[in-house]
Design brief:
Largest sheet: 3 strands, antiparallel
Radius of gyration: 18 Å
Distance between the termini: 55 Å
Shape: globular
Helix content: 40-55%
Strand order of the largest sheet: 2-1-3
Number of helices: 9
Length: about 220
């Protein structure tokens, strides 16, 4: 009977893996195609699958958006915090990058803000690299717009991010880089600093500039 079939059908997945916005090989030579494929198809998919499993097991979380889960991650079980963060962070990360020919440059407004906060684009990159290499173990490094509307660099452990209630430094991320070893090990091995240097070739500055405009327009 249709009603019986409907009752026995599995619930649809709440969250899904977004496709890469470019071919897996498009970020070479900064990031190789094999790393991109494994990172997206295996690692990110695993976060999505684990998050769906955790949410389906807790009726209190049913129907909540990814942003809602991330915002209160510090009050949630570790399995939800880690996998909601993993899903949000990676979805954000893919869009933070573009093929080298499309990388572009910061908008005039973002460039002025970078100069005001860090002195120059080169000094910003150096500070961002220092935060990334200084993150012990696995985690992320971020450029955020703080509550005061100014730019700041911060890093988070594991799959945390600055939107979480548990974040040491909170703010609106406009750029983030994954410094888990799975993001770079096949090409760079233990040379995280080289990965961070090469990554600037594929930063999607038009998207970062759009995020900055959006974040500051709400102040």
């Amino acid at each position: 009977m249709p009603s019986a079939l409907a009752q026995s059908a599995p619930a649809p997945a709440t969250f899904t893996l977004p496709p890469l916005p470019y071919a897996a090989s498009s970020l070479e030579p900064a990031i190789d195609a094999q790393t991109m494929t494994i990172h997206h198809d295996k690692h990110h998919q695993a976060y999505v699958d684990a998050l769906n499993k955790a949410v389906s097991a807790d009726p209190a979380l049913t129907g909540q958006s990814l942003e809602q889960l991330v915002a209160k991650a510090g009050t949630l079980p570790a399995v939800v915090r880690n996998n909601a963060g993993g899903h949000w962070n990676h979805s954000f990360f893919w869009k933070s990058m573009a093929p080298p020919a499309q990388s572009g440059a910061p908008s005039p407004a973002l460039a002025a803000a970078i100069n005001a906060s860090f002195g120059s684009l080169d000094k910003f990159k150096a500070a961002f690299k220092a935060a990334g290499t200084g993150r012990f173990g696995s985690g992320w490094v971020w450029l955020i717009v703080g509550a005061d509307g100014k730019l700041a660099i911060t890093s988070t452990p594991n799959q945390d991010n600055p939107l979480m209630d548990a974040a040491e430094t909170k703010g609106k991320p406009i750029l983030g880089n994954d410094v888990w070893e799975h993001a770079y090990y096949l090409k760079y091995q233990n040379r995280r600093a080289d990965y961070l240097d090469g990554w600037w070739q594929v930063v999607n500055w038009p998207e970062v500039s759009r995020r900055y405009a959006d974040a500051t327009a709400r102040k």
